[in-house]
Structures are given as C-alpha cells and as structure tokens.
Specification:
The chain is an alpha/beta fold. It has one domain: P-loop containing nucleotide triphosphate hydrolases (Rossmann fold). About 50% of the residues lie in helices and about 15% in strands. The strands form two sheets. Strands 4-5-3-6-7 form a five-stranded parallel beta sheet, with helices on both faces. A two-stranded antiparallel ribbon has the order 1-2. It starts with a strand and ends in a 5-residue tail after the last strand. The model has no long low-confidence stretch (mean pLDDT about 90).
Amino acid sequence: MACVKDGAIVVRVSADLHLVVGSTGSGKSTFARTLAQRIGGVCFIVDEWMRRLYHPERPNDAGYNWYAPRIERCTELIWQIAADLVRVGTPSVLEIGLTQRAARAAFYERARTAQLRVQLHVLEAPAEVRWQRVEARNRERGATFSLEVTREMFDFVEQMWEPVDAQELRAHDGERVDAAKLD
C-alpha cells in the first residue's frame, strides 16, 4: 500500500500493474510518475499519449465522440506495452482513465486472464480542491499539463466518475490516497 508520509509517497510493491484512478484534478499523473520512480517501473499516462499523437489535428469543437475512440486506441497500445514490460520483470504504472466501474472490471479481467497482478491506487480529494488544481494547471501549463480543461469538461467527467467501492478496493489490493495531502 502507498501512503503519504512527510510529503513523500511510501509504497509497498505487491503488483505487476499499478492502476491509478480518480476524478479530474486528483493528482493521478503526479502520483503515477512518483510511484513509477519509487518502484523502478514505467509510467503510462493516457493524456500524454493523446496530446502527442492527436492534439495537433484536434478540431476546435472536439467532444467526447472525437476523444473516445482515440483514447481507446491509446489505451490498447499502452496495455500491450505494459503487459510486455511486466512479462520481462518491469512493473508498469497506468493512469489511463477508467472512470467507470465496467471499464475497470474489464481491465481487471484482462489482467487476470494474462495472469498479471494489479494493485489499485484511488486518489480522492473534494471537487473544489480538484477544480482549483485544474485551474492552476491550466494557468501554469507545467509538467502535468496536457490540454486545457474547461469547467464544462471538468463537470462532464465528474458525472462519468464512478467511485471505487470497498469491494473493488479489497479485490485489487487497493488503497485510497488522500490526494489533498499530495500538494
């Protein structure tokens, strides 16, 4: 399990694949990078793939129907590379969305079929804290900036987010991370 102690992430490695989930602005990308560094793994952040592969030709009016198939293609490629890395002994940290329970269940089943162990990391923070982080990220355009997230986009994802329950957490050696303490 991971926890935050004196501002640092402390991790007990028990998995091949580390799945980082949470709603927008919870600190998933930052946490994933730090976790990968701590465990000697490779970090995959779907927003980075999207920005590099598709942002240059993204239409101004791009919405969910434009993003969804591209996210799916990136996620599929990330899965294939991560699974290959795990098979040669390198853990992978995945921050690939999976905001809905059904998508996470499909991921867990795929990992089970491939005989890969998963540890779930759920980042949680109040919506107002997360929105403040998103606004700051939009302004600063620092290391975790992939694209500007409008309030409309934030609210849309908020409606899609299906929180992890205790059963899902237990089933995947999971932990809840108080993301408000990660600043």
